[in-house]
Amino acid sequence: MRTAALVLAGVLLSTACADNRIVVTTPTPTPVRSTTAPTATASSSPTPSPTPTPTPVPTPLLSARGGILVKEPLANTKVRSPLTISGEASVFEAALIWQVTDTAGRVLASGFTTATAGAPEKGTFTITATYADPPSDIIGFAEVYTRSPRDGTIDEIVRVPLILAAGR
To answer: In the structure, how many helices (H) and strands (E) does the chain have?
Structure first.
């Protein structure tokens, strides 16, 4: 008797816990056949020609914090030595460090300069970088940056990609 009661309780529990809901799905619509043949429609207006995409114009590059703006050279310009690097800066004590490097990180020329005014004022700077032109065109960079007075790490930087033209 006791086993029969346990079996009955198990059956009642299993049916009470079973999810016996009916799931209704929306059927895929059946395509309707048309008895008329489709007709081609002529467009009264001509197909518009694609609008030409303007060639992007290089712009001066600005450091992440906005303290250094390199106006010359512009990105991806083909340059030769001596290279003029110029722009504006609003940096601590107007002190700027510059270098010309290749893609391997080799420094071809480097030095220090000062802007005409220190932060919070904005001054201008002009650098003439002289280096040996490479034997063939290579990609290089003109970098202008500042170092932190606290720990000497690079504080702000502008890195202009260039094509360093082969020597003549």
So the answer is: 1, 9
Q: What is the pTM of this model?
A: 0.66
Q: Cβ of 126: how many Cβ atoms within 10 Å? A: 13
DSSP E strands: which ranges in 11-82?
A: 61-62, 68-72, 77-79
Cα separation, 99 vs 148, whole angstroms: 17
147: which 2 tokens? Answer: 């170092």
What type of residue is 123? Answer: G
Q: How far apart are CA 68 and CA 62, in angstroms?
A: 6
End-to-end Cα, the chain, rounded Å: 109
Rg (CA), the chain: 36
Structure tokens at 136: 């063939």
**C-beta neighbour count of 49 within 10 angstroms:** 6
Strand partners, 66: none
Residues in the chain where the model's pLDDT stays below 70: 1-57
Alpha carbons within 13 angstroms on the beta-carbon side of residue 28 total: 1
